[in-house]
Amino acid sequence: MSDHDHDHDHDHDHDHDHDHDHDHDHDHAPLSRADYHQAHQARAQQEAARLLAARPALGGQWLAWVARELYALTPPHFAAMVRRELQRQQDT
Fold it and tell me: pLDDT-derived band of residue 1, with 50, 70 and 90 as boundaries?
């Protein structure tokens, strides 16, 4: 069972294809984009808050660090949500 979970977590090819197809993902994905957004909004907010919290400690290195953190997030559309959320939290 754990082997299957591990494989799923590192299935980058699937994520890449899914992202590539993002205009059509509602045709074959179990969740529409709006549903996905709703389901993951809280997690995106937490992730953005975590990134912002590190800003005072990192100073001038913060932007480069955030870029690496976002790059490491999968799937890509979740990383994009976190990026938007980060901008929203910075503006307020």
Answer: low
Q: How far is CA 34 from CA 6, 10, 66, in A?
A: 27, 24, 25
What is the spatial distance between Cα 82 and Cα 64, in angstroms, rounded to a whole number? 15
Other Cβ atoms less than 10 A from the Cβ of 2: the count is 6
pLDDT for the residue 32: 84
Cα angle at 80 between 66 and 84, to 5 degrees? Answer: 80
**What average pLDDT does this structure show over 27-40?**
75
Query: How would you write the chain as a 3-class SS string?
Result: CHHHHHHHHCCHHHHHHHHHCHHHHHHHCCCCHHHHHHHHHHHHHHHHHHHHHCHHHHHHHHHHHHHHHHHHCCCHHHHHHHHHHHHHHHHC
